[in-house]
């Protein structure tokens, strides 16, 4: 297999279809909802959590087995049934329409994999093992979660605003580069690692680009 190409996709308002309503489907539905997708689930049965989301109108639910052509209109498709025949049918339908497909039990037929993710505000750290060991992806995610705590999200939001102002107001490229470097200076990253957010704010605040934050 060639190397996988990592991308972060905007799913806001896009129709994403999940076939199957079990444990794995539930995990994928929740991550799609986090991304603001419009989610439709087709399955004879749902987990309690998925049923609650359907009852609340958060997801669309069509009770029943997958039927040929059900993928029509979807932006991407996740096939998460425990029925290999249904998964093959979904894969064929997606191939024909060139729809992006994640088939949870069939890496060969996937056109995309879902990585394990640490999220800290706008910071995303994604881990993929190219399907070789999803459990290792999970373990590394857990390790990264301990290493990169919620402060990283706060810090990113803070420097994101300042970076935007620097880009808008500083025209000299050398000066601009120095300022952007200063926002991610080693001392700041050390302070973050030590959980000393007051020090982080102090250091970031001392980056003087001649404008308010
Ligand atoms: C190819 C891929 C397709 C896809 O995108 O789904 C795929 C395929 C398969 N997973 C299987 C098993 C498990 N998957 C997990 C967990 C996760 N699986 C995820 C992704 C992926 N799984 C894609 C590759 C990602 C990559 O490595 O690059 C994660 C990262 C993301 C997510 O699913 O949201 C999420 C962790 C999220 C987190 O914790 O952060 C666990 C552990 C657990 O349940 O906690 C187990 C049991 C232990 C084990 O088997 O390792 C099986 C065998 C099923 C069987 O035995 O029948 C297959 C099929 C096969 O390999 O043939
Ligand atoms: N990619 C991943 O991360 C993982 C994948 N798996 C694989 O994912 C598959 C699903 O696992 P679970 O969610 O634990 O199974 P599950 O048994 O909890 O759920 C299967 C769901 O598929 C539905 N279903 C069955 N036939 C269908 C059809 N024809 N059309 C639509 N829906 C149908 C069932 O009603 C049920 O809701 C298994 O094949 C398993 O091997 C398992 C663990 C992790």
Keywords:
7 strands, 2 domains, 15% strand, two-stranded antiparallel ribbon, 45% helix, single chain, binds 1,4-dihydronicotinamide adenine dinucleotide, 213 residues, alpha/beta, binds ligand SHN, Rossmann fold
- Which ligands does the model contain, each kind named once? ligand SHN, 1,4-dihydronicotinamide adenine dinucleotide
Structural class assignment:
alpha/beta
How large is the radius of gyration?
Answer: 22 Å
Figure out the total of helices.
Answer: 8
Instruction: Give the overall form.
Output: elongated
Major sheet characteristics? 5 strands, parallel
The CATH topology assignment of the largest domain is Rossmann fold
Give the strand order, joined by hyphens, for the main sheet.
Answer: 3-2-1-4-5
- Distance N to C terminus: 47 Å
How would you explain this protein's 3D organization?
The protein has 213 residues and is of the alpha/beta class. The protein folds into two domains: 15-114, 3-Layer(aba) Sandwich (Rossmann fold), CATH 3.40.50; 151-205. It has eight helices and seven strands, in the order E-H-E-H-E-E-H-E-E-E-H-H-H-H-H. The strands form two sheets. It has a five-stranded parallel beta sheet, sandwiched between helices. The N and C termini lie far apart (47 Å). The mean pLDDT is 96. 1,4-dihydronicotinamide adenine dinucleotide (NAI) is lined by residues 19-25, 42-45, 65-66, 80-83, 86, 104-105, 134.
